[in-house]
Structure formats: structure tokens, C-alpha cells
Design brief:
- It is a single chain.
- The chain has 351 residues and is an alpha+beta fold.
- It has one domain: DD-peptidase/beta-lactamase superfamily (Beta-lactamase).
- A hairpin with a 2-residue loop joins strand 9 and strand 10.
- Helix 1 packs antiparallel against helix 12 and helix 2 crosses helix 6.
């Protein structure tokens, strides 16, 4: 859901320009929720938390971090219980719910879905740009991959529908005892709310969305964009998202085949190379999902540490940023490296 601040129509199709929302905001006091251990581990944890505090300033906004070493349970939290807009990271719980229905035998991944003009939604991806001629059908497996690998928004809304809708996703999270995450809207409605657009009833197409966006006065666009970071809908806490990643990795969310499939697709994510992976060695495997909209930039995933040192589930969220996306990505990359070094090189790394 790489959604930025301006829309432009070209050849009747919607394009998104990479412009971030810049809103001066006050910075609240930090909250370190992690209970502080004793000894050398306490000193290392305090230092890495202070480093994340410094790196938050680089992001130009507010950062939230939750990281869990999956083999040992060691954890690191920073503003981990604050809510952040998920943007496209909400595609992870949507994917879990779709695969949950597959595990239940209610749907099949080879089930074909015929695309209609009204299914072509604005934002990131390929479907709306390349597959807009009538007669295209894709399997749910195709749509799942497009949703997670290139963050296609049209695919996402079709997957969400097949998964049973937003309420079904949120109910699934409750059943898994994952708190702090809620899914409320398709990407179409989420983007419209962010942009201050009132969607018309009935069928429509991306060109119509571009027209509606241009009709919104600039001042009317800014108010919903500013309010977006505090909207409880489609939000997550870093702790909640990392808890979901932990459930996925442990096989507690899905059956083994679905777990392997989901993690394999997330390893092939083609967005956000400069985020969690940005400052990690090139041989490090990361299964992740990114998200960007307005003043929000996120990346969540599972990092495989070298030398059989285990795996780290980590969520890094940034909201209310005054900086461009590249600066936010750099902050995420620095934070990710600090987390990586903490769990790989910490004083109790052999525990």
C-alpha cells in the first residue's frame, strides 16, 4: 500500500507520486516497556534502547519497535504498546485469515477469481496498470503472492473478500489471542479516507478515483491525512504484530503447509529493500512485509540470524513523520541493524 500524497491520471489510469505528508508534530516522551534485566544484559538492553531513541529522531516522527528472539524468548520493546497505522503490513493478518480458510477446507488456493473493472483499485501493484482488459482471471494463490510480494492493492481487496472480510480477520486474531491488531477496511476505503475522498455508490474505476482526488481542495486533503495516524482502524501495536509473527513462525496460526507457504512468499517480498534489510549483510534471510501511506512507513518480518543463532521476529513502525520516505527507510534500517546486533552479539547470545 505504497500510497503517497498526490495522484495523477495518465492514459486513464491512476499513478501515485512518491510524495510524503510533512506535518510538524510534537514528540511525546519515550516509553520503554521492556522489563530491565540485571547484569551485562541490562546494560546492553539499555544501550540499544537509547540507540533506538536516537534513531527515532532520524525518522522525523514517532517510532515503535518490538522484537522477540524466537528460540529464547528474549525481547526488546520501544513504544511497543502504542498504536500505529499498519498500511500494507495489514496484509500479513489478511494472508493468515485466507490461509486459515484454506486449512479449514472452505476455499482452495487454485480457485479462480474473475477480475472486473470495479476490482481495479488505486495504489501499489500491477493489476490495475497491466491487467485492466476484460477477461482476466487469477487464482487465489496468484492474488496472495501479488498481495505480499509486490503489495498489490487490487489483489489485496480480492483476497480480503475471499478471506471473509475485515471482521473475519479481526475475529481470527482474537482466536489466536493476538491483541493490538484490528482490520477494518479494504485498501480502497482506507486510501479514500486518508485522502479525504467520499466514494460514490456503485461501480467505478481508477480513473474516476483520480478525478475525485483532484476535486478535493488541498486544505480538505490535509485534515484527514493528519488525523490518519490517530485513527484506530487498521492499526496495530508493534507488540501485537510481532506476536502474530511469532505465532506464524511457531506454527500456531496455520497448518504446516500453509505456514511454509506464507513464510516462503514473505521471503520473496520485493518492496522495502532499504528497510529491515537495508543495513543487514546481504546473505541474511528476511521474511517480511512493508507498508507506506502518507506520513507512515513500516516494515515487519522475521530475520534469520547467522551461525545458528536463531530467528528474530521484529516490527518497526514509523508514523507522523516530517521526513521523506527515504529518511524513514534509513531510520528503519538502522533500527533493524541495532536489533540484529543486540540478539546476535549480546552478552547472553549463547543462552
Amino acid at each position: 500500500m505504497r500510497i503517497h500524497r498526490k495522484f495523477a491520471a495518465a492514459a486513464g489510469r491512476l499513478c501515485l507520486l512518491a510524495l510524503a505528508v510533512a506535518v510538524p508534530l510534537s514528540r511525546p516522551a519515550k516509553a520503554f516497556q521492556q522489563p530491565v534485566p540485571t547484569g551485562a544484559e541490562s546494560q546492553t538492553l539499555t544501550r540499544v534502547q537509547r540507540e533506538i531513541d536516537r534513531l527515532e529522531a532520524l525518522s522525523g516522527g514517532k517510532a515503535g519497535v518490538a522484537a522477540i528472539h524466537l528460540e529464547s524468548g528474549r525481547a526488546l520493546f520501544f513504544n511497543a504498546d502504542d498504536s500505529f497505522p499498519m498500511a500494507s503490513t495489514y496484509k500479513v493478518p489478511i494472508a493468515v485469515q485466507l490461509l486459515h480458510r484454506v486449512d479449514q477446507g472452505r476455499i482452495r488456493l487454485d480457485q479462480m477469481v474473475a477480475l472486473k473493472p470495479a476490482d481495479l483499485h488505486p495504489g501499489s501493484g500491477t493489476i490495475s496498470r497491466l491487467l485492466d482488459d476484460p477477461g482476466v482471471s487469477l487464482s487465489l494463490a496468484n492474488l496472495l503472492e501479488l498481495m505480499l510480494i509486490i503489495s498489490d492493492n487490487s489483489a489485496t481487496d480480492l483476497v480480503l473478500k475471499a478471506a471473509g472480510g475485515p471482521d473475519a480477520v479481526t475475529d481470527m486474531l482474537k482466536e489466536l489471542e493476538v491483541d493490538g491488531i484490528r482490520v477494518d477496511r479494504p485498501t480502497l476505503n482506507l486510501i479514500a479516507d486518508w485522502a479525504g475522498i467520499k466514494l460514490p455508490d456503485g461501480d467505478w474505476d481508477p480513473a474516476r478515483f483520480a478525478d475525485l482526488y483532484r476535486e478535493v481542495p488541498q486544505l480538505r486533503r490535509e485534515a484527514p491525512s493528519i488525523a490518519f495516524s490517530g485513527d484506530p482502524r487498521d492499526s496495530a501495536t508493534p507488540r501485537g504484530m510481532t506476536r502474530l509473527l511469532e505465532k506464524i513462525w511457531r506454527g500456531q496460526a496455520l497448518e504446516p503447509d500453509s505456514t511454509r507457504l506464507l513464510l516462503d512468499i514473505m521471503r520473496r517480498c520485493e518492496t522495502g529493500e532499504d528497510r529491515l534489510k537495508g543495513f543487514l549483510p546481504p546473505y541474511i534471510e528476511v521474511a517480511h512485509k512493508t507498508g507506506t501511506i502518507g506520513a507512515t512507513t513500516n516494515d515487519v518480518g522475521i530475520i534469520a540470524l547467522p551461525d545458528d543463532a536463531g530467528h528474530v521476529a521484529v516490527s518497526v513502525f514509523i508514523k507522523e513523520s516530517e521526513r521523506d520516505v527515504a529518511q524513514r527507510e534509513k531510520a528503519i534500517a538502522h533500527i533493524s541493524r541495532a536489533v540484529y546486533d543486540f540478539f546476535l552479539l549480546g552478552p547472553d547470545a549463547e543462552k
